[in-house]
Amino acid sequence: MRHIRGFDGIRAISVLLVIASHVGIIAFFKEDAFGRQFFSVFNADFGVRTFFVLSGLLITTLLMRERRETGKVHIGYFFMRRVLRILPVYFLAIGLMLVLAYAGIAQYKPTAFLYGTLFAFNYVPISQNLNYMSHLWSLAVEEQFYIFWPLVFSLTFTRKPLILAFCLMIIAACYYFMRYGYAADIVATYYTNRWTIPAIYPIMLGCVAAIIHDAARPFIKTIIALLVSCSLISLPLFLG
């Protein structure tokens, strides 16, 4: 089966966490001690990053499957599938936003639409951001990953330790910037600290998970693996 069972359920939970945060449900339950602890871990941020992990895991799994079945990765076909899946609806949304802006219903900033059209909204200058377009940052990160990762994968997958080391290096670099801060001028000008670095490392974690899963498939199918996974997900609730 090409469809990975369970992903839809995880996506649904992640979406609910994002919606609950934006409509204030999470804030309401934070009055309770357990609710405060629970939603300090499982919140909109958790939901969004879960989507990124799933993206890295899914794309890497598909690339490994193609490599195993055909002996190589057809990068052109990969790009075409992504184009047909994303671009029609994406540019329809951009077009509707542009119509609303020209009709005077929504604010218009040419730079914001340019960055949106080029799938670079995660790098839009703060002064040029439009709130009703700000959700495009996550799609921008995804598209950049779709362009970058198949090329790296096709060059390094024959040496799994190398590709794992590459992923871990990127994760470590992201942690460094998140732990020790960003250059003041970057934070003052761009949303890199919110819209780029925090998205890169969960995608790379998903890539690592896919590679580990491929190497440990017999163990992954056991009940022990399920219990270990549930324990790791729940662990932050008990760390204070």
Task: Walk me through the structure.
The chain has helices at 7-22, 25-29, 33-41, 44-70, 75-102, 110-117, 136-156, 160-180, 184-189, 192-195, 197-215, 217-220, 223-234. With 240 residues, it is mainly α. Helix 8 (160-180) runs antiparallel to helix 11 (197-215).
Feature tags:
240 residues, mainly alpha, 0% strand, globular
Topology:
Layout: H1 7-22, H2 25-29, H3 33-41, H4 44-70, H5 75-102, H6 110-117, H7 136-156, H8 160-180, H9 184-189, H10 192-195, H11 197-215, H12 217-220, H13 223-234
Helix pairs in contact: 1-4, 4-7, 4-11, 5-7, 8-11
N/C terminus separation: 41 Å
Number of helix segments? 13
Helical percentage: over 70%
Report the radius of gyration as a whole number of Å.
Answer: 20 Å
Instruction: Return the structural class.
Output: mainly alpha
Shape: globular
Would you identify the regions where 5 or more consecutive residues have pLDDT less than 50? none
| Order of helix and strand elements from N to C terminus | HHHHHHHHHHHHH
**How many E strands?**
0
Residues in β-strands, percent = under 5%
What is the residue-averaged pLDDT?
Answer: 85
Biggest sheet character: none
